[in-house]
Amino acid sequence: MATTPVISVRDLYKIYRVGDSRVRALDGVGFDVQKGEFCSIVGTSGSGKSTLLNMLAGLEKPTKGKIVIAGEHMEKKNENQLVAFRRKHIGFIFQSFNLMPSMNALENVALPLTFQGVSRKKRLEMAREVLTLVGLEHHMNHKPTQMSGGQQQRVGIARALVVQPEIIFADEPTGNLDSRTSAEVMELIRRIINEQNQTLVMVTHDDHLAGFADRIFRISDGRIVDIRVTGNAKKDLTRKQH
Amino acid sequence: MRFWDILLMSLSSLWKRRIRTILTVLGVVIGTASIVVMISLGLGLKRASLEEMEKYGSLKSIIVSEKDSYESDEEEGGRANKQTLVHLDDSVLESLRGIEHVEYVYPELEAEVMLLAGGYTCYTSVRGVPTKDMELIGLELAQGGLPEPGDTQLKFVYGNSVIGEFYNEKTGHGYWFDGTMAPVDLMNDPMICIFDAEKYYNFIWGNADESGNVAMPKKYMINAAGVMAGKVEDYNSNSNLIYCDLDLLKALLKKEFRGKAIPGQPTTISGKPTKEIYYTNLVVGVDDMKNVQNVQAQISQLGYSAESNAEWVESMQGQSNYIQLALGGIGAISLLVAAIGIANTMMMSIYERTKEIGIMKVLGCDMRNIQGMFLMEAGHIGLLGGLIGVALSYGLSFAINHFLGVSQMGIDLEGASSISYIPFWLSALSVAFSVAVGMAAGFFPSLRAMRLSPLAAIRNE
C-alpha cells in the first residue's frame, strides 16, 4: 500500500550554540510515519528525542531539514501559521497533564474546540463523548485537583482526541504516573489508536512503555540508531521502513 | 475563537484573582473620580460665572444706542456731522433685523419718573418696550403679570429693587440709608407719577418757569401690572427699572412735554425738541453666543454704538477653560498612577500564567486571541473602575454641593447653581477614557503574553 505518510522527516538538523561550541541536538534525522501508526521515540536524557518531538509539533524551528506533516511543510511556517496548524491538525499529550486548574474535566477537554470557535453546546457534547471513550463518564464535572494522576492523564488524552487530529504527539505521557497506572494509561492509548485509527508519536525513555508501539525509533546523540517493528504492528505498516 | 468565549475567559481570570482585581480597580476608581470631580468643579465654576454674568443682561443680546456726539466729531471730523447723526427709529430697527444671525430686535424708550406714595418718594427710570416684545426680556414676576396687548391705560411692572429707592419725604431716609423699608405696596397701592420732575421742584421751591407760571405738573395715577421676583438686594440689569408699554409711554410723554424738550431725547442745535420721539436703545437678540461679536461689529460699522457682554464672556470662558484644564490635569495624575497599577497587575498575571498561556498556544489558541484576552482583562479593570469612579463622583459632587455649598458660600450661591456639576457627556467620556487607559496600560503586557514561547508549557518541572 503506497499511501503518503502522515509525517515525513528528511535530513533534520538542530544545532544549539552553547558558548563557543556547537551542540548537535539532532544530527541528520529522517523517517516516515504512516496513518494509523503508533511510533515511540526512545532515548536517554539528552539524546535529542524531546527536541525532535518539539520540532514535529512546530514548537521549535529546525536548523536545517524538512518536516512534512499532513502534506504541509512545518519548517516554512511562521508562528501564527504553526499555531493555526496545531489547532486543526495536532493533538498533544503532556507529561505533567497541563490541565487548566480552574476548569472541570469537561471544560478542559472542550478547550481546544473553544479555540476553533465551536459553539459551547456542540463542544461540550463532543467533549462528553470523548470523555466517555476514555472511561471518565462519571468524572466530567471534577476539577483536576479532585482526580488521580491516571484520571488526569485520561482527561489529557481526551483533550488531544477531541479535535480529531491527523496526528497526536505524546511527551512522556506516563512520566508522572506509577507503573501500574502507567500500564493502564498505555493500554488505553493502544486501544484508542486501534479503534480510532489514530496516528500517535510518543517520546519516552522507558523501553517497556515503548514496547506498546508499532514501531520503535531508538535515538542517541541526535541520530536514529535503530528502528524496530514490534509484534503490535499491523501487517501493511511493517513494510515501509527507512 | 468566538468573541463571547474570549470575554468569558478574561472575566473568569479576573474573578480568579479577585482580590488583586479589586485593588487595581480601586486605583482606577480613585483616578477616574479625581478627574471627574476636578473637571466638575471647573464646569460648575464656569456655569456659575455665566449665570452671574447673565444678571448683567442677556449674554446673547446687543444694546444698540446712538453714537455719542463727541465720538462722531472725532471720527467724522466736524460739528456739522452732528446734524446728520442717525437717531434710532423704526427704519433703523428694520435694517438691524436684516442682519444675519439676528433673531429679534425690539426698541426701548427710557424716561425719568417720580413716584409718590403716602409720604414716600422714589426717583427712578421707566423703560417702555412694546407689549408684544415684553416676553423677550425674560422678566421673572413675583406678583401680577405683564401688560396686556389691549391695554389703554399705562401699567407698570416694577423691578424688585425699586421698593428700596423710596425715601421718606420728611426725613429723607430710605431703605439704603437705614434699612427701614418704605411701607409701600407696589402692587396694590395707588401710585402717583410725575414725569416732569423739573416742573415739580420748581413748584415746590416756588420758582417760576419760562412762561412765569408756578404750576404743579400733571400727576398720573398708574396701576401696577406686576412686580418682579427677587429680594430688594438681588441685583440684575432690570431690578432697578420699571417696565411699561412703549406706545402708551410715548403718547404720555408727548402730551406731558408738549413744546418742550423731553429729558433724554435729542434736540436740535437751538435746544428745541425734535419732531419725533426716538428710541433710547434697540435691543438685538442673536441666535447664538458665538455670533454676538460678529453681529456687534456689523452694527458698529453701520454707525451705531453697540455693546454686549461678548468680550467679557469670552475672556471669562478662556479663563475658566484654563482653570478646568489645570484641575483636570491634577486629576489625570492619579489616573496615570492607576494605569501603572493596571500594567503591573497585568504583568504579574502574565508571569503567573506563563504555563497556562503556553498550554493554550500548544493547543492552538490564536496569538491574537491571547492578546485579546489580556487586553480585555485590562479593559475590564478600566471599565469597572470607570463606572464605580463615576458613581463615586456623583456622590462626591452631591456632598460638595450639599455641605460645602450651603455652609461655606452661604447666601452668595443660594439659588445659583451648584459648585460641582457633572454633565452626562463628562461621565460617559470618563468611563470611555478609563477603558482606553486600561487597555493602553494592558497593551504591552498583552504583547508579551502573545509572544511567550509555547515551549514553556511542556518544560517539565
Would you write up a description of this structure?
The complex is a heterodimer of chains A (242) and B (461). Chain A is an alpha/beta fold and 242 residues long. Chain A has a single domain (34-53, 79-230), classed as P-loop containing nucleotide triphosphate hydrolases (Rossmann fold). Chain A has eight helices and ten strands. Chain A has helices spanning 49-56, 79-89, 105-116, 120-133, 149-161, 179-196, 207-210, 235-238, and strands at 7-18, 21-33, 38-42, 64-69, 72-73, 90-93, 167-171, 200-204, 215-220, 223-229. In chain A, the strands form two sheets. Chain A has a six-stranded mixed β-sheet. A four-stranded antiparallel β-sheet of chain A has the order 2-1-4-5, with helices on one face. In chain A, helix 3 (105-116) packs across helix 4 (120-133) and helix 5 (149-161) runs parallel beside helix 6 (179-196). The radius of gyration of chain A is 18 Å and the shape is globular. With 461 residues, chain B is α+β, with helices and mostly antiparallel strands. Chain B has two domains: 3-54 and 315-458, no CATH class; 61-308, no CATH class. In chain B, 51% of the residues lie in helices and 15% in strands. At the A-B interface, helix 2 and helix 3 of A face helix 1, helix 12 and helix 15 of B.
Helix content of chain A: 25-40%
Most residues in contact, chain pair and counts? A-B, 33 and 24 residues
Strand tally of chain A: 10
| Ends apart, CA distance between termini of chain A | 16 Å
What is the name of the CATH class of chain A? Alpha Beta
Structural class of the secondary elements of chain A?
A: alpha/beta
Write down the overall mean pLDDT of chain A. 89
What's the Cα radius of gyration of chain A?
Answer: 18 Å
Described by strand count, sense and barrel closure, the largest sheet of chain B is:
6 strands, mixed, barrel
Task: Quickly give the CATH architecture of chain A.
Answer: 3-Layer(aba) Sandwich
Structural class of chain B: alpha+beta
Shape of chain A: globular
Total of domains of chain A: 1
Q: Main beta sheet of chain A: strand number and arrangement?
A: 6 strands, mixed
Low-confidence parts of chain A lasting 5 or more residues at pLDDT below 50? 238-242
Corresponding CATH superfamily of chain A: P-loop containing nucleotide triphosphate hydrolases
Radius of gyration of chain B: 35 Å
DSSP summary: helix tally of chain B: 15
SSE order of chain B: HHEHHHEEHEEEHEHEEHEHEHHHHH
